[in-house]
Structure formats: structure tokens, C-alpha cells
Amino acid sequence: MGEAVTRVVCLEIDLADQVSSAPAHELSYRQARPQPYPDDLLRHAQYYSVFGRQAPAHRSVLLFVGGRGQEDATQEVRWHGTAVVDRDRADYQLLKTAAERRVLVAETDGRVTLGPDAVLDDHDATLVCLERLDRDGRLVFYPAGKSDLRLGAKAARQPVDLVVPINPMSTLLSREAVTATAGFNGSYFVIVEEEFVSDPFSFAMDPIGLVITDEVVVNPPIYRRPAFLVTRDTYGNENDDLLYGGGMRRALIRTIGPENWSATLPGGVVVAGRSVRLPGAMPMAVNPAQDGAECSVWTPTARAAGTFTTPQDDDRVDFVVVGEAVVGLKEGGGTRIPMNAAVIGLQKRYASPVVTAIRGGDRVVKHQVDCGPDAGRPLHGTQGWVPLIRDGRPCDPMVELAGLDFAGHEHGSEDCTIPPVFLPDRYVVEENHAHLAIGLTGDGRMYVLHAEGCEVRTYREGRDSQGASPIELRDRLVALGCVEAIAMDGGGSAAIAWKGGLASKPSDRFDVSQLAVERLLPGMWLFHRE
Prior knowledge:
The protein is an alpha+beta fold. Helix content is 15%, strand content 30%. Among the domains are: 1-20 and 386-496 and 503-520, no CATH class; 38-69 and 79-146 and 157-166, no CATH class; 258-368, Jelly Rolls. It contains nine helices and 37 strands. It is globular.
């Protein structure tokens, strides 16, 4: 037996470095481009075939690739009483229902269709959906078992065990970092099946929490969590030295939530959180215990308290907002609160221009975030997990969780952590796993630490890194002189790239010992140096 090993990769970036008067660096968050590669789709399908509550047994998976901006609005397609105005999400609901009834099957020629026993009210609609998606090349079937000439008829008509709706905006860090000096993973994202199987508004690979790129807020901060930000300007503070406080772009860590968020809905209606001073904006009441406000907003955090639908109110119209779009609406309340989206409810006299704009084809929502006077208008940003160091003092992750939005699973309890995923606190905080953390010093240096980990089922003592706890990474960052630090997404998502290749070993194994598999990401932080 070998000894337990923990490997930690450290990336150091000098953000205060400069050439003449121009910054010698660029640190930015980049979303993946919606250009799915065939091997990427197969990687997604393999992931969901292998991982799940049925593991180590495999299952048949049908990937449904979302259009993302190319959808046609449907009329009166309903789910849980909500009119779905995004056809992709309505199509997913049709396919998921057929799979649950065990009538969605794959023929030996690879076609996915309805089995002979299908007796559904929406039989024709499901077939039309399948034909359209197949024609557009947006269906990928991954069988659970082998299919070749030796099996003959046994391979015919495999039922689909799981339908996975995929956001095509995903890519590999190693691929995107080819032209960069370095890179690392960013925000959390929807990946576990419990996050989307009961919710047509949630697609795998959708980002979770705040995402800012090139000053555009592409995903709002519906959770109150710390964020890693890169600002356009810097304003000196007591921890800055003269050089770093002299107008260079600076990285910051700030706690951001719905109170810092404002949104311009279709039709020009503007709503804003309590910390935002925006003339003419309607104030948001976030997750109110009693309705009646002109504008109410419900987030997945409300689910932790057992609230899964918005209150009934004949004088209110609810709008489901995912990313930069309204994807659903309902009059009268009673709208199911999505797993990873917000419901904005407006009294009818204020909702009328929004409804009119949506019916005219406009579903775009423009977000803004007020990150505080020292941040100005951030260029880039993503939310992470918990603060590890604040104002030079180490933080206790368990204590920090109590003041943040880390609950939201229907079957969870008070020790839920990363919404909408159910994970016990002790699993994330106390046990060793793959983790990634970012630390900032007062003189402009930035450290990114990745503690390599490995899946428990394929871990080999002495050969695989056992990972580390967030507290271990925090203590390492303290020793490096960091005065601010944040823990980011960990597990198989945690990765660091250096000069075009991965500098750290991923923790995903697909149940094969020693086979480290890089996970697809919806975006990543990239560092370019002149």
C-alpha cells in the first residue's frame, strides 16, 4: 500500500506588472462559443451514462442540444401552469415525459422515436419534435449496452433512460487556453441530473450565479455569494502599494446578491434590488414571506424554506428569467420556482408592457450589477463558493455558509451547500476533494491553487492525489501573504492550464482507474501576458 498523496498546483500572476503606461496583462472571463464539437457531445453523453444513482451500471442517454437564441416562441405550451415561451424548453418537456413513460426508444438504425405502445395525448407533437431536432442535428443517443452484429435482435429498440438538455456553450479549458499564458475554471454550472430532470427551465451546462464578460452581465446574481471580479479601474485602499493603487486594473473579491442586481425587462420596465440606486426603477422584494409588492422576485433560495411555487395572486404576472431571456410567463401566480433561475412577479398594471413586448417576440433581459464604489463597473466576474480570507483574516467556511445562499434542493436539509446541488456541508468542508481557490495579496499578486483529487471508486493510494480541504488551501494562501481569498468550483471542474496545456490532473475518471478525463466547462478565466 502506498502513502496518501496530495498534489497542489500553484499559479502566480503579478497583476501589478506593467510595461510603460499600458497593462502588460489581460485577465478575463470567456464564455464558451455555441459551436458544439461532436466529440464534446459524446463526452457529455458518456458522462451521464456512467454517473448517477444507478452507477456503476450504465444507462441509455438522449442528449437534446438547446438552440440558445434560435428558438421560436410557442403559444400556450404549458408546464405546471406556466406558459413556456421558449420552444426548446417545451420540446424538452415532451421528450422527458415520453422517456419517463418508457415509450421513447432508439431503433437499430440509430433513429429515436416512440415505441409501439405509446398512447399519449401529445403523441403527434412528440414525433414532430423528434423529427425536427433530428433534422437539425440536435439529438445524440448514447446506448447503455453494446450493439453490433453478434447481438442481432437483442439490440433493437433500446429504451431511453434519461433525456439530458444540453446548453451547447461548453468547451475544454485545454482547448481555449492554447493561445493564453494561463487559465483556470470559473463559475459553478448545472451538471447533476437532479438539477434539470424536474425543471424544463434548467439545462445542463447553464452557469450558476453571476457571470460578467466584457462588462455585460450574462447571468444575474440570483444567489448571495462571493464573486471574483476584474475591474476597469482601481481605487486605492489601505492594502494597496503605490504602484498597484495607481490606476491599474485590479482583481477584487466581493459578496454579491439579488440586492445588488437590476434588470430591464422587455418593454423597458426596470426593477432593482435594495442596494441599487436607479431612478425610475421598481424596488424588488426578494423571496417575500407575504406578497403584495409591486415587484416580487423569487429565487431558488426560497425552496430551502419549502416554498416551491409563487403565491397565488390574480393581480400579478410572473416572468421566468434564465440568463438574458424571459423563458416563461404566467398570470395569477402559482408559478413553480425553477432550480436555477428567478421568477419576477409584477402587478398587472406594470406587467402589461412586458407581456406586449414578449408577444411581439422580444424576450431579452438586460442586467446590471452594483458591486460597490471601489469596483466601479466590473469588466469580468463570476461567483464562487465561500470566502476563505477577508481583510487579512482567515474565514471559517462553515460560519460563512450560514450568511450566504447555499440551499435550494427539494430533498435537502439545512446542511445543503451548493444550490441547486444537494451536498452535505461536511462533504465539502471537512473531507478531502479536488478544490480550487483564488487568493489576492495587497501588492497586486494573485495566486490560484488547485488541489488535485480523484473519484473515490477509482482512487489508488500512493498513485492518485487524495485532494485537500478548503481549510488547507486557505492556510496555504495565508502563508503566501494573501489578504483576500475565495473558494471556487471544485471536483472534476477544477483545473489550471499553463501555456496551452493542463497543468493539473482532473479528478473525473469515468470509473476507469488512472484515466483522468477533462470536464467540459461553460466558460473559463484566461490570462494573457504581452
